[in-house]
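Hey L., structure's done. Input below.
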Amino acid sequence: MKKAAALTIGLAACAAAQAQTSVNIYGIMDAAIVSEHGGVASPSTRITSGAASASRIGFKGSEDLGGGLSAFFTLETGAKIDTGELDAANTIFNRQAFVGLKGSAGEVALGRQYTPWHLALVAIDPFSTGYAGSSKNLFPDNGSNIRTSNTITYKSPKLNGFDGELAYAMGEQTSFSTGRQFGGAVGYASGPLALRVAYNAKNTDVAATSTAPALSRTLGRNTLFTAAYKLQAATLRFAYGIDKGFNAATLGNSNNPYGGVKPTPSTDGRSVLLGLSAPIGPGSLMFSVMHKDDRTAFNQDANAWGIGYLYSLSKRTGLYAAYGHIDNKNGAGYTVANNTESGTGNTGYNLGIRHTF
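Output:
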C-alpha cells in the first residue's frame, strides 16, 4: 500500500513538472509562382518562397517559475522552400532569438526581436505585409525597421483597453549612442475599435577609427498612426506614416529597377493606407490603396493598390492569389514586393499555397 502511494505521488509530481514546462515546434511553409512586370529586369516569372508569409520553423517554450512569474524563449529561422536553403547566409536564427521573463507587471525580453513599429504595421495591413499588395510597396518596412539584434523589450499588460511596449537596441560601438535604435508603441482596443501609435528612431552615425573620423547623420525617425474598425461584414483599416531623417525610408530595391532617373530614398515623407479585409465564402478578401507623399525637392510621389484572396482548404492550409500595382512619379523607384522579396517592377502577381503548423 505504501509503495502504491509513493508511486502515485511520484507520477503526480512528474505530471505537475511537465505541466509547468512546455516547448512547441511551429512553422509556416509558403511557396508561390511570382510574376513581375514594368522594370528593366522584367518580365520575370519564378517560384518564390514566402510570398504571403515568410517560410520558417521555430521553437517556443515557457517555464512556470511560481508566484505568477514565468520564463519564455523563442528561436526562429527562415527557410527557402524553393531551394531548401536558409534565407540568410551564415545565420541560423535570423528571424527571432530571445529569452525573457513574464509576470503581472508585463514581460521583458533580450535578443533579436521585431520593432514595435513593424508589429503595428503588420497588424493594420490587410495583407499583413505580405503578398503583392503588401504595405512594403510604399511604407519603409525593411532592414532594421523590421527587427533588431541586441535588443531589450518591455510589453505591458492590458489595462482598461490600453497597452504599451518599448524597445531599445544597443549599437555596441565605441560610442554608446552610435548605431543604437529605440522605439515604442501605445494602443487602445475596445469593442470594434482598435487604435495604435508607434515610433521608431535609429542612429546611423559611424564611430571614429584610427584611419577615419566619426561620421554624424540625422536621426532616422518613423511615426505610425493606425486605426481599425470591425463591421459585421468587414474590417476597415487605416494607417498614416511620417518618415523623416537619414535612412528613415530606405527603398526596398535600391538598384535603380526602372533605369533612367536614379530613385532617391525620401528623407521627409508621408505614407497613407486605406484598406479592408473581409471573410467571403471559404476564405478572406484583402484590399488596399496607398499614397506616398515625398516632401523633399525630388517630389518622388507614388500611388499603389493591391487585391488578394486567401482560399482556406482547412484551418492550416490555404491557396492564395494576389495582385499589386504602383504608379511612380518623377522617377520614384518603388517596386511591388511580397513578404520576402523587394520586387523588380511596378506590377506583380502571386499564385501560391501556404501551410502552417
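The helical segments are 2-20, 116-124. The radius of gyration is 22 Å.

-- N.
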